[in-house]
Design brief:
The protein has ten helices and four strands; from the N terminus they run ααβααββααααβαα. The protein is mainly alpha-helical. The chain has two domains: about 270 residues, no CATH class; about 30 residues, no CATH class. Strand 2 and strand 3 form a beta hairpin. The termini are far apart.
Length: about 400
């Protein structure tokens, strides 16, 4: 097994193995201890005593399981709901503690669960969070028709809702008569329900470990699986799937997650059984199961290769060669203005005459008038100088 396969397998198993060990210890107080288990090491947590001899009556019947499962690809990757994986591993821990000589690998239980019901998902079913198949897996009536055995009712319709003939029920497809022998309470919820993957997985372990076979070897595996369903083709298919699981060719998925190829359960579907009487599904002529498909490798959007032609750098416009100047005239003619402009200097504005203060004395006024050329002309009879001085003094 490749290192990646081992890592894959270890990643999926370790947390549940710890859970299984804790669950087993809590229920048994240490299965296998003589002081804790007065009925001996072959007693299960719910009080069931393991059969001392091999159970020869088949657990499931009919060739339809082989026909349906043959569409699967042995050894291909398969997803296992978390609730189912937990149930298979728990069953391994419990049964091997109760029967030290069985050595049952959980992968063998899982392979049977894959063939019988695709881990509780056949016919539009799904496991709920408690691990119960919903709306319920029921086979067709085992009435001797449709290539089935004729098995009259043995449970008064308690498990298969049919009071005339038996039908295979639950994820591991037990017929009621066999469930009456191996049915156990695998999760300590107080019920023994063949539709509950916890109960059904541990019941499968009880069946396979009945007798003295060592299930760590192929001989013991083949003998016990053949008793489960009397078909060599069934045995071959189960062991091939078991080997694939042992090689890590599986993945655990959340219980509520369904992958491609599995129909989302519809409680109104005929898969729930003809008015509660069971429908197609289970043993003896179930609908053909679609081949499981590996989770397709998502097609990644290819990274577009950039175009080889990059945006060209614009070609610079060549600097035009200037037109050469003609040879200059040897003696250039200088243009002389015909007239010389006359520049008139800007004259300052006329000063605003300062008002003569009215404080002039009469003498000063006379002096100023005299300076202005005013003289007294007595012959005219007008004293001009006096008049000028008075004007200055009294403006």
């Amino acid at each position: 097994m490749s290192s990646s396969g081992r890592l894959h397998r270890a990643t999926a198993i370790i947390p549940l193995a710890v859970l299984s060990a804790a669950w087993t210890a809590s229920l048994t107080g240490g299965i296998g201890s003589a002081s804790a288990d007065p009925e001996g090491p072959r007693t299960l947590p719910d009080g069931t005593v393991l059969p001392a001899s091999a159970i020869e009556a088949p657990a499931s019947v009919g060739e339809d399981a082989v026909t349906r499962a043959a569409a699967l690809t042995p050894g291909s990757a398969s997803d296992i709901p978390q609730a189912a994986l937990s149930a298979y591993q728990r069953a391994e821990g419990v049964i091997n503690s109760a029967d030290k000589g069985c050595n049952l690998p959980w992968e063998l239980i899982a392979a049977i669960g894959r063939v019988e019901s695709d881990h509780g998902r056949f016919g539009g079913n799904a496991l709920d969070e408690q691990g119960v198949a919903q709306p319920g897996i029921y086979g067709i009536a085992l009435n001797g028709k449709n290539n089935t055995q004729d098995i009259a009712d043995t449970d008064a319709g308690q498990y298969d809702n049919d009071t005339r003939h038996d039908r295979a029920v639950g994820p591991m497809q037990f017929i009621p008569s066999t469930w009456a022998v191996v049915g156990v309470d695998g999760d300590s919820d107080g019920t023994r329900n063949p539709q509950d993957i916890d109960d059904a997985a541990l019941a499968t372990a009880v069946y396979l470990c009945s007798g003295d076979d060592d299930l760590s070897a192929e001989k013991g595996q083949r003998a016990s699986v053949y008793r489960y369903n009397h078909s060599n083709a069934y045995v071959d298919l189960v062991l091939e799937i078991m080997q694939a699981y042992m090689a890590g060719d599986f993945s655990a998925v959340p219980t509520s997650t369904l992958t491609s190829g599995v129909i989302v359960p519809d409680p109104t579907s005929s898969a729930s059984g003809n008015g509660g009487k069971g429908g197609k599904g289970g043993k003896g002529g179930k609908d053909d199961d679609a081949s499981p498909t590996k989770d397709p490798t998502p097609t990644q959007t290819p990274t577009q290769t950039p175009s080889g032609t990059q945006t060209p750098t614009p070609t610079p416009t060549p600097t035009p060669t200037p037109t050469p100047t003609k040879d200059p005239t040897t003696n250039p003619t200088t243009s002389v203005p015909t007239s010389v402009p006359t520049l008139s200097p800007t004259l300052p504005p006329n000063p605003v005459p300062t008002a003569i203060p009215s404080t002039l004395t009469y003498v000063e006024a006379v002096a100023q008038c005299t300076a202005q050329g005013v003289i007294d002309l007595p012959l005219t009879g007008v004293n001009e100088l006096e008049q000028c001085a008075n004007d200055l003094l009294n403006p």
